[in-house]
């Protein structure tokens, strides 16, 4: 487990399916539910996924701060969860959200529009 939080309340059947990294995390992609816009990438452990599924708000594990954070609690830029899906290998999570305000910590709508790489180089 990535923190000192007690054992997760995540459904054991779901927990058994997850393929985590060595540090117990699964990448979680946040996508705007109605436009398909990719907003950000965060990390979830079992407890973060459980909280996301049960509260309807995205909860992530901060690798830098070593703590849980709920998107929007300090910024007001809330992610309201519309659906959650695992990819075919159960090693990535797709969270479709209704994003209020900016998704990126820089204040941009998405984390993926500031540094577009050239193709054919």
What is the fold's blueprint, element by element?
Layout: H1 12-17, E1 26-32, E2 38-44, H2 46-55, E3 59-62, E4 67-70, E5 79-86, E6 93-99
Parallel strand pairs: 1-6
Antiparallel strand pairs: 1-2, 3-4, 5-6
Describe what you observe in this structure.
This protein is of the alpha+beta class and 121 residues long. Helices cover 13% and strands 31% of the residues. It contains 2 helices and 6 strands, in the order αββαββββ. The strands form 2 sheets. Strands 2-1-6-5 form a 4-stranded mixed sheet, covered by helices on one side. Strands 3-4 form a two-stranded antiparallel ribbon. The N and C termini lie far apart (41 Å). Mean pLDDT is 89; it is low at 1-6.
Calculate the mean pLDDT score and round it. Answer: 89
Instruction: Tell me about the largest β-sheet.
Output: 4 strands, mixed
Number of helices: 2
Shape annotation: globular
Index terms:
121 residues; 4-stranded mixed beta sheet; two-stranded antiparallel sheet; 2 helices
Report a brief summary of the structure.
With 121 residues, the protein is α+β, with helices and mostly antiparallel strands. Helix content is 13%, strand content 31%.
